[in-house]
């Protein structure tokens, strides 16, 4: 009887150890897919709601950001270079490029739609 108990204990310990590892592998796989989709970023259309030149941030109401698999919404985003904000103003329609840089969304290009 003790042999069977030992075998069950070993089996449960093995399963208990393997299950959390499989969850980590799945999470890592999803993260890798996100990075793969960022390899082909594209411009997204939006409307400037607010420009803060001092902090280097812009509030944009945008449509779907396909390469980040993000639905349309209004967001405050940091720009990589503050000079991107000098030619835009609230209410203006723009095309912009945003990338995920170490977990932070950063705007790398802004083009006014004329």
Average of pLDDT:
81
Classified by CATH, the class of the largest domain is Mainly Beta
Strand composition percent: 35-45%
Total of helices: 1
Parts with pLDDT < 50 across at least 5 consecutive residues: 21-38
Question: Which bin fits the share of residues in helices?
Answer: 25-40%
Give the number of domains. Answer: 2
- Strands, total number: 5
CATH architecture of the largest domain: Beta Barrel
In whole angstroms, the N-to-C terminal distance is 82 Å
Main-sheet strand order equals: 1-2-3-5-4
Oligomer: single chain
- Rg calc: 23 Å
Shape: elongated
Written overview of the protein:
The chain has 114 residues and is of the alpha+beta class. The protein has two domains: 1-37; 44-112, Copper binding periplasmic protein CusF (OB fold (Dihydrolipoamide Acetyltransferase, E2P), Beta Barrel), CATH 2.40.50. The chain is 32% helix and 35% strand. The chain is built from one helix and five strands. It has one helix spanning 2-37, and strands at residues 44-52, 57-62, 73-79, 93-101, 104-112. The protein has a five-stranded mixed beta barrel.
